[in-house]
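Database export, one record per block. Field names are fixed; values are copied verbatim from the stored entry.
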Amino acid sequence: MTILTLAGSPSQNSRSSALLRYAAERLAARGLASDELGLRDLPAVDLIEGNYSGSAASALRKRVNAAQALLISTPVYKASFAGGLKAILDLLDEKALADKIVLPIATGGSTAHLLALEYSLKPVLSALGARHILAGVYATDRQVTVQQGYVAIDDDVRERLDTAVDRLAKHVSTAPLSQGYDLGYLALNARFSV
């Protein structure tokens, strides 16, 4: 199974990227590997021009298509998720997130932007076919500090992120491996009733 982490910040040292890396480490501790992709991994000209037919966009779509789950992080600017992340999402197919488990993660200047996940990011994820979007994790700039490679995460944020990642891990580890119904799998996991 594949888990893709998608960083929407233009900075590798951003708070949202730090939370994404922490989440990936927690997944690794649970025996679940993840693959990382960030805004900086795609050519700027392809993002600016929305070069859907380019090789970078094609590679992006293949990686998203292969993923069973995505963790998507973004800084919040002016009550909305980052434009760079939107540029990445615009390169995906219309239903690219169908049948995927998605965990949104965001950071912003204050709690006033807390609902940016609900009112700006989640509708875009839904438009891309996501139907299983886990409760997002939002942190303020005061709750996550990044200085000279050292990351400090507030206990409350760490606890909420741990819970969200554990929930994602549970969904990933119990998801069927195929699109069809496996009665043995359903019976073992009590996913049916008579």
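Remark 1: The beta strands are 3-7, 34-38, 69-77, 80-81, 101-108, 132-133, 137-140, 144-147, 150-153.
Remark 2: Residues 177-189 have pLDDT under 50 and may be disordered.
End of record.
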